[in-house]
Amino acid sequence: MESEQLFRRGYYRNSYNSITSASSDEELLDGAGVIMDFQTSEDDYLLDGDASVGKTHYTMTNGGSINSSTHLLDLLDEPIPGVGTYDDFHTIDWVREKCKDRERHRRINSKKKESAWEMAKSLYDAWSGWLVVTLTGLASGALAGLIDIAADWMTDLKEGICLDALWFNHEQCCWGSNKTTFEERDKCPQWKTWAELIIGQAEGPGSYIMNYIMYIFWALSFAFLAVSLVKVFAPYACGSGIPEIKTILSGFIIRGYLGKWTLMIKTITLVLAVASGLSLGKEGPLVHVACCCGNIFSYLFPKYSTNEAKKREVLSAASAAGVSVAFGAPIGGVLFSLEEVSYYFPLKTLWRSFFAALVAAFVLRSINPFGNSRLVLFYVEYHTPWYLFELFPFILLGVFGGLWGAFFIRANIAWCRRRKSTKFGKYPVLEVIIVAAVTAVIAFPNPYTRLNTSELIKQLFTDCGPLESSSLCDYRDDMNASKIVDIPDRPAGTGVYSAIWQLCLALIFKIIMTVFTFGIKVSSIRFVIPSMAIGAIAGRIVGIAVEQLAYYHHDWFIFKEWCEVGADCITPGLYAMVGAAACLGGVTRMTVSLVVIVFELTGGLEYIVPLMAAVMTSKWVGDAFGREGIYEAHIRLNGYPFLDAKEEFTHTTLADNMTVEDIENLINETSYNGFPVIMSKESQRLVGFALRRDLTIAIESARKKQEAYPSLPAESPRPLKLRSILDMSPFTVTESHTNGDSGGYFPQAGSEQCLVTHNGIVLGIITKKNILEHLEQLKQHVEPLAPPWHYNKKNILRHMAQTANQDPASIMFN
């Protein structure tokens, strides 16, 4: 229907059809059926594109001669609405976006001296970057404080309610009570369990069963509400969002993923998911929340709303603010954005990321959601130094973290693939209900699994002091110990041994449930906080074991120099912290940013060396089983077009020459997103590159403008000047380039496609998706499905896979 309308208005049918489905060699070379003739005697005339200079004519016509007035050419050279934008699930052209920003900046500078208004607009443009990151930091800190307060209240709601003030959680409810004791500081008359409210019993089997039932009821209610809201209102709000944010920051377009609805539903369901007791946490999704804020605020400033590359600078700063409020680590947030998620990170983005993280941390500190004047719940301080012999157990924890990371990645990827291939994955609500029910039933009897994951980590990190009444601190007092400021190492009591058994069961439970919880359709992250909890449990167990070994065998040569009788030698909480960092490093393969984040949690410089040793060991061990972290693994699982700029490409293969006949055979079966523009069919000299979408929009715009000029004869062919949409400097490589060079240049150049040329003559096109397919096939050693002599991107890559195990220098095609 559309092509018929174009035909009636003077456009030939085959001109428009070829835009949507190129079908011949002539159409490919001539730019979607619109003949682009670039005959010229001088290159300057070619670049100028003036049809009136000598023999030079820079035209695109539908087969007729150009006989319409010149003013129409000038009219069509005006900016065309929609040109330069991108469709959903497409990749931006970084080079073009940077050129657009330079042109915008040049235009503003040229006008700022014309009037006071233009000068004000110039100042506004210059400060818009700082304004948008300030608003992002303010919103991120406020939302993080709101999420923390609401999640703590709803988590305690599963066990009881505060009658004096319904909005108080358990701890806040008992703050003002005068009837609490030191041993039972969490019990006060104002706080009522559900058993007390329903059956009037505070103790006994009936009370335990009623509290058990109500715990399961609230867990299922929260989980059902969370998954229902995500499914109905914002499907993009599920998961942590970090793999998708990494892909978006690399230049991929996912419309709605950082929108207003996603932000609102993510914030609400994140609280519900954490309160449901599932093996997940709220820290990772705060990065998604902060990026939603940055994306929304960027639309208030034309500098960022009209330029996708500039917008990603704001998103990089927003991700730093998200980590800042998630872990209370502003510097760690900046390093996380630089090391883990950002694709393009100029120096000014570093400054703005630092400022956004600072503002977000300041707002969260002002809200003080945990009531401890800290940014995070599990902030701890240790007063005992570590000793040289402790490096051995720290390294062992690093080995455990690497093994856990490798197992977790493989197990979860396998489970997610199975979920996608079975009917079970088609019922996300049922899956969430089943997982929540199993989690609640198993978690309630064990006090360590019943706790909120952040509360559990806080207990495991905390060192035993005179004010601690936890069973982990149930040591037998040694009356013969010398009186010193720090509590000395003591023999473990029955409470400590009982806690160790409960922690072992909690460790097994966390490992299993984290594997199966990963991938369900709720708003939360399934591996950061659970991985930290698993590492903290293992570390605390190891710390207690080393502590007791040093107490009973202080005369051993490894303890003799440092662990005297009555001295405070071993800090089990430090082992929990090192274990948490090691397991998180094994899962994410983060190094520098992770050490800084954990360092900011503890506030002590002297524990950096144990953290570095454990984190590096976990990375080495994990890399021995596969270099992919959990974020990259899920990017690959979901099929996102992401090329890691830090990845090394070791495969070297050569592409073959191709003929026009090969192109004709392939064009009939292939639909391209863009077309190379050449001098002529004879020379095939490359002039530029035009995107399919821009060509389509340009033709539609020309048709609308033609309707506005009815005086022009309808039977005359309409000239179509497309210089404004032509990329005059596309990313090109020669045919002798190896795949390793191309794979490394793609993320650095920031281009979606690469034109293969020989002495300026176009031979073919390779896209980023082709490189990804090639790398995937090389990993899986897939045999080629088509003859290698086709110079089609997929066939070339399949042929590369076929020859991956051969000597590239010995393989020359044709």
From TrEMBL:
It comes from the Eukaryota. The chain crosses the membrane at residues 127-147, 212-237, 258-278, 314-338, 387-409, 429-448, 499-520, 527-546, 574-599. It is found in: Cell membrane; Early endosome membrane; Late endosome membrane; Lysosome membrane. GO terms for biological process: adult locomotory behavior; negative regulation of cell volume; phagocytosis, engulfment; photoreceptor cell maintenance; positive regulation of reactive oxygen species biosynthetic process; synaptic transmission, GABAergic; synaptic transmission, glutamatergic; synaptic vesicle lumen acidification. Keywords: Antiport, ATP-binding, CBS domain, Cell membrane, Chloride, Endosome, Glycoprotein, Ion transport, Lysosome, Membrane, Nucleotide-binding, Repeat, Transmembrane, Transmembrane helix, Transport. CDD domains: CBS_pair_voltage-gated_CLC_euk_bac, ClC_3_like. One of its GO terms (molecular function) is voltage-gated chloride channel activity. GO terms for cellular component: axon terminus; early endosome membrane; external side of plasma membrane; GABA-ergic synapse; glutamatergic synapse; Golgi apparatus; late endosome membrane; lysosomal membrane. SMART domains: CBS (SM00116). SUPFAM superfamilies: CBS-domain pair, Clc chloride channel. Strongly outwardly rectifying, electrogenic H(+)/Cl(-)exchanger which mediates the exchange of chloride ions against protons. The CLC channel family contains both chloride channels and proton-coupled anion transporters that exchange chloride or another anion for protons. The presence of conserved gating glutamate residues is typical for family members that function as antiporters. This is H(+)/Cl(-) exchange transporter 3. The lineage of its organism: Eukaryota, Metazoa, Chordata, Craniata, Vertebrata. The gene is CLCN3.
